[in-house]
Design a protein that fits this description.
With 163 residues, the chain is mainly alpha-helical. The chain has 2 domains: 62 residues; 89 residues, 2-Layer Sandwich (Nucleotidyltransferase, domain 5). Helix content is 72%, strand content 10%. Strand 2 and strand 3 form a beta hairpin.
């Protein structure tokens, strides 16, 4: 092989080698830039996952706490139609002193929510509308004489508590 031809082949080989090295270095640089962007995202994702897991643990502990569970059930009871309706009736049919005869509320509640009234014991653990109003903690419930020797149950919404 001639000297010139050998030098030309060597130059081509060196040039190809330099091109490959340049491409590898550029690719490595691109990978490094991608990693620099991905690492903070990965750290943030791990941190968020840890926070969610901690929140799940706190929620599980809270649900095991009897008072938290009682408050959850109380909120469900207070939002039920069978408790809301007597409050609505009391707002429109109360005596001047704010009290309402429970007998005035019973039939409208039965008419509007017959299934809830029928399954009151199973759903709410009480067997009467009076006990339900007491259990809801939203009403004051009392007994009074009707003037004819009989007693009747009266109720009214409790005053709102100041924050």
């Amino acid at each position: 092989m001639s000297r010139a031809r050998g030098a030309a082949l060597s130059a081509i080989s060196w040039s190809s080698s330099t091109d490959s090295t340049s491409r590898r270095m550029a690719a490595a640089s691109g990978v490094n830039r991608s990693a620099e962007r991905a690492i903070p995202v990965l750290k943030h994702t791990k941190s968020a996952l840890a926070a969610v897991e901690q929140g799940r643990k706190y929620a599980a502990e809270a649900m095991m706490n009897g008072e938290v569970w009682r408050q959850f059930e109380l909120a469900f009871l207070q939002a039920s139609r069978i408790v809301q309706l007597p409050g609505e009736i009391s707002a429109t049919a109360a005596q001047p002193d704010g009290w309402t005869d429970l007998a005035r509320a019973r039939q409208p509640v039965v008419n509007v929510a017959p299934d809830e009234m029928a399954s009151m014991k199973e759903r709410y653990g009480v067997s009467s509308l009076k006990k339900l109003l007491v259990a809801s903690e939203m009403f004051e419930v009392a007994e009074e004489s009707d003037g004819g020797g009989h007693r009747r149950t009266i109720y009214r919404r409790k005053a709102a508590r100041p924050n």
